[in-house]
Amino acid sequence: MILNYNEIMKRQQVQISEVGPRDGLQSIKSIMPTEQKLLWLKALYDSGIQEIEVGSFVPPKLLPQMADTPEVVRQSKSWQLGTVLALVPNLQGAQAALEAGVDKLTIPVSASQAHSLANVRKTPQEMVEQVAQIVKLKNEVAPHVSVEVGISTAFGCTLQGQVPESEVISLAVALANMGVNEVGLSDTTGYANPAQVKRLFKQLFQELGSKAGAAHMHNTRGLGLANCLAAYEEGVRTFDASQGGLGGCPYAPGASGNVVTEDLVFMFEAMGVSTGIQFEKLLAARKVLQAALPNEQIYGMTPEAGIPKGFELNG
Amino acid sequence: MILNYNEIMKRQQVQISEVGPRDGLQSIKSIMPTEQKLLWLKALYDSGIQEIEVGSFVPPKLLPQMADTPEVVRQSKSWQLGTVLALVPNLQGAQAALEAGVDKLTIPVSASQAHSLANVRKTPQEMVEQVAQIVKLKNEVAPHVSVEVGISTAFGCTLQGQVPESEVISLAVALANMGVNEVGLSDTTGYANPAQVKRLFKQLFQELGSKAGAAHMHNTRGLGLANCLAAYEEGVRTFDASQGGLGGCPYAPGASGNVVTEDLVFMFEAMGVSTGIQFEKLLAARKVLQAALPNEQIYGMTPEAGIPKGFELNG
């Protein structure tokens, strides 16, 4: 395993992977029209975001919000503004995504036995086999495409409670051995705390080296940014986030699901860690989002409070 | 300066200093009746909170919400449940507080020249003299009482923008030399970021040793808990927080001023860092607060989302 961990730790820049157009839009009832979705995606890429999860390849009957993903992928690709990422839950989805021309696939694999069986009727081990088939297909038809796995419920599960850390790590090792490019850890349930985040990512880097992937944190209990900070301190340099915290829990004001992109970008930029994102343009994209979904509550404290006096955020 | 920094860093426990009854109540329009304030304070101490800022000694014309502070101090003292702390802005306030029988005084001193002049018509240096007089009075009439200074606008100021870090630290040194027991740093404006928090508290410990005091963080831009985590990692073991984030900014949903006690306690307890607080009893105190202020919005994500399945928080 080749890894210059010291080199990673010195890097004062991060990549934000915007997941709102997939994770956010699939969590709300409104269906964003394709034309407006493309305006939003364009505004997000224009702000400097380098990677966007533009949609998912799932049956339209299950998620009508994602029915236009093939078209969205094709259009996004034509701009050549950044990585076009799509979620695929299985081999059929991967085939459709590769046909549409994605740059990168992301596959969710749950570490929780209970969650995995309930959601996809497969054990985590059976999902590893599915991932192996996807990697094989990808290598045959589109070897330039990269494959990421996000291990969901890595920090706990609403069905079974605690998920043993050893199971998360051995699952990550098995997936890396199947040839995926990156394995990240997702706090699907908003259970993570900074000490746990540090323990798990430390082990992930030890076992996977440069294949250790993104931190996908939720803000359900308000710890989203603290958990991102903890992950950063262990060497993580890619963070999933959702503009406006789209896909938030309606029962708790401000209790968004995903970490809010705007607040995460402010935190890193204020720390002197470059995101490559221009904050004003990110706010412009936020306006496009709100105009496209006038009846949805969007979150974020920095957009409301404004950038502090005397701050210069350069992106 | 005697300091066993390694010993501090090893301590897996923190003290939460509840500031809601002062910082929270003075920021809202409603005036909480004394009887209900006492019920709330009792419930907070009963949850295991060891220190509460129960009020401030300021002219009732300026802050009618605090007019009952002498009575509140006397009652709180009679329970003998924990430290009774009160804010005093000047010598007259200190005299009144000592007469009422507080255990501890806290004095705000602004590091920002502009903020200090606008608020108290004194420079920070003139405030150091004021603090010296308060310490002298205290030593004469109540030597067992401890004196804390919270340096406000330590991380930036809405009037002057950036506040030079060297000015913050030299102010802290001057205050420590005047005989105060602890000097803490307050992010009055919600400007702080974790990298800055680490830099400033590291210097504070280097210069002040065991006199380095509490972190008082705001959540204005969503970074409150991340900043507390950063302070913890530098050795801070006392944290100000406000139940329900009382005193929040009404313009931004969820954008409370003070860090929310409930979320901060959850973060530390989940990390295995003991707060001495029983979460269920903290929620009981929250109900007392909400009943006493039925028309005020209170915040906090953990109370809404609940404790994760399989978690045991022992306090």
How do the helices and strands line up, and which of them pair or pack?
2 copies of one chain form a homodimer.
Chain A: H1 5-10, E1 15-18, H2 20-24, H3 34-46, E2 51-56, H4 69-79, E3 83-87, H5 91-100, E4 104-110, H6 113-120, H7 124-141, E5 146-152, H8 165-177, E6 182-186, H9 194-208, E7 212-216, H10 224-233, E8 238-241, H11 261-270, H12 279-292, H13 301-305
Parallel strand pairs in A: 1-2, 1-8, 2-3, 3-4, 4-5, 5-6, 6-7, 7-8
Task: Explain this structure.
Two copies of one chain form a homodimer. Chain A is of the alpha/beta class and 315 residues long. Chain A has a single domain, classed as Aldolase class I (TIM Barrel, Alpha-Beta Barrel). In chain A, 44% of the residues lie in helices and 14% in strands. Chain A is built from 13 helices and eight strands. Chain A has helices at 5-10, 20-24, 34-46, 69-79, 91-100, 113-120, 124-141, 165-177, 194-208, 224-233, 261-270, 279-292, 301-305; strands spanning 15-18, 51-56, 83-87, 104-110, 146-152, 182-186, 212-216, 238-241. An eight-stranded parallel β-barrel of chain A has the order 1-2-3-4-5-6-7-8, surrounded by eight helices. In chain A, helix 9 runs parallel beside helix 10 (224-233). The first copy, chain A, is globular and about 50 Å long. Chain A starts with a helix and ends in a 10-residue tail after the last helix. At the A-B interface, helix 9, helix 10, helix 11 and helix 13 of A face helix 9, helix 10, helix 11 and helix 13 of B.
